[in-house]
Write a structure and sequence with these properties.
alpha/beta; 13 helices; 283 residues; six-stranded mixed β-sheet
């Protein structure tokens, strides 16, 4: 297969999982390459996602690595076979790659959680709210790129608005609900948007109020995307150098625990809707 100039995060993840299996089996790259009748350079490209790998080769490698997790193997095979060119591809070359990687991650997610303390979650933002958030960066974006980013964010909503949406659960701190990114009318429209979304059976919105005693988790902003199997879950966090995708078993376990803590600290969905409704009435 031709070498890829810029693999997607999903392609890199497949290679990384194959590398983890090889290392767990105690094999070196050249030994794995020999199993496929190729060389170390090609094996390295497969493991870094810069070269594709066939379904048959994934199965051969899994067998040689003594992997017995059939569900995991089938998930890797599906990743190797995937040729999806989703709606986000129209933005390739126009927006930074992390925007496209996030869209692809959401497209393949089996469920989606997020925790937000200062902003309304991207999947629930109105166009006006998103434009103000995205337009606040320094230096300012050219108007054309700002509009591309706003349009991209609006199109991301397909994962929860599609006829077959994924289960979505978000925990939002009261601070994010109260901060007026726009004027009063825009703030009210944003709260109504959150309320409307919360009426769907597959959407759960929870609120952490200011007056919660003993809450010390305000640094736990996250996005957690469920994979085809738990080993393929992914956490998305903002980092100083950009978006960080986290997929180690230990870190995934830590973030699952953190999310459950946020969930336990928040109001139940019905009380959360009442809470947001009362905030909207104040505006």
């Amino acid at each position: 297969m031709a070498r890829r100039k810029q693999p997607t995060a999903r392609q890199e993840r497949l290679g990384a999982e194959l590398r983890k299996l090889r290392e767990a089996a105690g094999l070196k790259g050249r030994e794995a390459a020999a199993l496929l009748g190729t060389d170390s350079a090609q094996m390295s490209q497969i493991e870094f996602g810069t070269a594709g790998v066939s379904e048959e080769r994934v199965r051969r490698l899994a067998a040689h690595y003594a992997c017995t997790d059939e569900a995991f193997i089938e998930a890797l095979v599906a990743m190797a076979a995937d040729r999806t060119r989703g709606w986000w591809e129209e933005y390739r070359g126009l927006l930074p790659t992390p925007f496209l990687d996030l869209s692809e991650l959401e497209h393949h997610a089996t469920y989606y959680w997020d925790v937000n303390f200062l902003h309304i979650p991207g999947l629930l933002q109105t166009e006006d709210y998103a434009r103000r958030i995205l337009g606040y960066r320094v230096p300012e974006l050219p108007a054309s790129e700002l509009e591309l980013r706003v349009r991209h964010r609006m199109e991301r909503k397909v994962v929860i608005q599609d006829p077959e949406p994924i289960p979505y659960e978000t925990v939002i701190h009261e601070a994010a609900l109260r901060i007026r990114v726009g004027d009063r009318a825009a703030a009210r429209a944003q709260l109504v948007r959150v309320l409307d979304a919360s009426e769907a059976d597959h959407v759960i919105v929870r609120v952490i109020p200011f007056d919660l005693d003993g809450f010390a988790g305000a640094d736990s902003t996250m996005v957690y995307a469920g994979g085809a199997v738990p080993k393929l879950d992914t956490v998305v966090r903002d980092a100083p150098s950009g978006t960080a995708l986290i997929d180690s078993d230990a870190q995934l376990g830590r973030f699952r625990t953190l999310f459950r803590r946020m969930e336990a600290a928040s109001l139940d969905p019905e009380r959360s809707r009442d809470f947001i409704h009362s905030l909207a009435k104040e505006l």
